[in-house]
Amino acid sequence: KGNDYYDFEIKTRIYVSSENADIQAGGLILRYRNLYSYYMLFLNTKDQRLTLTRAALAGFKPLKRENRSIQPDRWYELKAVCYLDHIRAFLDGEPVLDVKDQTSTGGQVGLVTGGPSLVYFDNLQVRSERIEARREHPQTRPQTMPQTAPQTQPQ
Description:
Layout: E1 8-16, E2 25-34, E3 37-44, E4 49-56, E5 59-67, E6 75-83, E7 86-91, E8 94-100, E9 108-113, E10 119-128
Antiparallel strand pairs: 1-6, 1-10, 2-3, 2-9, 3-4, 4-5, 6-7, 7-8
């Protein structure tokens, strides 16, 4: 709780029950800053699709949707990999969504359910590694200002 993640991978097992006939959805919250700045990776078994949505002051904006044969009452592995402005989503290890969006590149993570959906989560994992930029051949500054060639006068 309270950790901000920038370049990270989050995954969980998710089970969406068919008990509620109206809404059957749940998923992951990514890069949460506040109520108006986050991403939601949503698994909807009723509509049979996976959606990456961005929350903003103006409301929710679906960035990408993928229709899939997603059934309720079974376990799925849902994973997101966030690196810089790139978000990739996987369902049971298979790449499903690939989005670039520069709105937010860091924040907290969490779980979400769609309204009264009955959703179970298991084995939530977040992995974040510090990435260090390295230069193979560091540039060095000259110790003295370079001398300019003397100006010659035309003859």
